[in-house]
Amino acid sequence: MIGMAHDNDSALIGENIGLISLLKKDNIKFFDLKDPCHGLNLVIEHSLSNLPPEMMQFVHSIASHFASPQPQRKTRLRKIQEENGKSSLSKKAGLDSLAKSWRLFR
């Protein structure tokens, strides 16, 4: 038995020469898992593309600020996470907080 996780690329799932199709033709038993992380990433990318460009620039500026090589910034981010609980910085909570902040900064 073969297990395979993939992103639905045509090289893997193509009907004629895709790897999965070739495995099916040879009657090889396999477990086919379409990568849920890749699918979720596509959904998030699509959702973010619908946000105003200014909001995305705001998000990019915040991310760039904390991605700086200056250790003080990373320490500050860790402190923010600890004060708010890391789970509160989930994508949904983060986007909700961003939307609220965005209304205040506009």
3D architecture notes:
The chain is mostly helical and 106 residues long. It folds into 2 domains: 2-38, no CATH class; 52-105, no CATH class. Helix content is 64%, strand content 9%. The protein has helices at residues 10-13, 19-25, 36-49, 53-66, 71-84, 91-105, and strands at 2-6, 30-34. It has a two-stranded parallel sheet with strand order 1-2. The longest helix has 15 residues, at 91-105. The mean pLDDT is 77.
Major beta-sheet overview: 2 strands, parallel
Task: Count the DSSP helices.
Answer: 6
- The low-pLDDT segments are none
Distance between the termini: 56 Å
The overall strand count is: 2
**Structural class from helices and strands?**
mainly alpha
